[in-house]
Amino acid sequence: MQRYLPTKFGYRYFSSPFIAATVSEFADDMNLASSFPLFYRYMESRTSSGWVAYNTGTALLNPMEGYSVNFGSVDLPGTVDVTGVVNNGAVNVTLQNHNHQFTKGFNLAGNPYPSPVNWNAAGGQRPILTTPSTSSGQAPPMSTAAPTAAMSTAYQATGLQTTSFPRCRVSLCTSQTALIL
Fold first, then answer.
1. SS (H, E, C) 83-95
2. pTM of the entire predicted model
3. Residue 74 — φ and ψ, nearest 5°?
4. Partners of 51 in beta bridges
5. For the residues of 9-62, what is the DSSP string, one character each?
6. Predicted confidence pLDDT, tens digits, the chain (181 residues)
7. How many CB atoms lie within 10 A of CB 132?
8. Cα 155 to Cα 158: distance, rounded to the nearest angstrom
């Protein structure tokens, strides 16, 4: 799978459409050994910021889990590639809400398929529950603060939450239940 980025500057959200893909898939696109971590996952259960460095090459890219990847400070276009065995069939994830001060029940959930999910397609299956607050391919700045209502409004205004889930994109979701695609 390839994803073209008009600019590789800064953080981008990614999820893996593959079974058992690892963080090392990004090693040819970024420096996993950087002294400042460039690859993060989001863990809602943390009592401080939910962002956790996740730059060990052998670490799994879990289906439906979103990741924030910093490709550097150069404002040039580029293509990111990940390979593996494609996910197929229903994929489930349980979303948590521990209601901690900084995470507030936000979960970083990603599309587990290599193509967009069209929730309005004939015969298509709608997710059981989603409340996305951002769907842009560009991640918001890392912060210890919880996502804001402004982020939610900006995403919901695009109308994407009712029509499609772009490939390899992720959404911040709030929930105490499960998201099933």
1. CCEECCCCCEEEC
2. 0.69
3. -90, 125
4. 42
5. -SEEEE---EET-BGGGGTTTS-TT-SS--EEEE-TT-SS-SEEE---TT-B--
6. 888 999 999 899 899 999 999 999 999 999 999 999 999 999 888 888 889 999 999 999 998 888 999 998 889 999 999 999 998 888 877 778 888 888 878 888 888 888 877 666 666 555 544 444 333 444 444 443 333 333 332 333 233 333 444 544 455 454 444 444 4
7. 20
8. 6
Residues paired with residue 67 on neighbouring β-strands, in sequence order: 14, 41
Pairing of strands 39-42, 51-53: antiparallel
Lookup: tokens for 118:
């069209």
**Cα dihedral across residues 61, 67, 73, 78: positive or negative:** positive
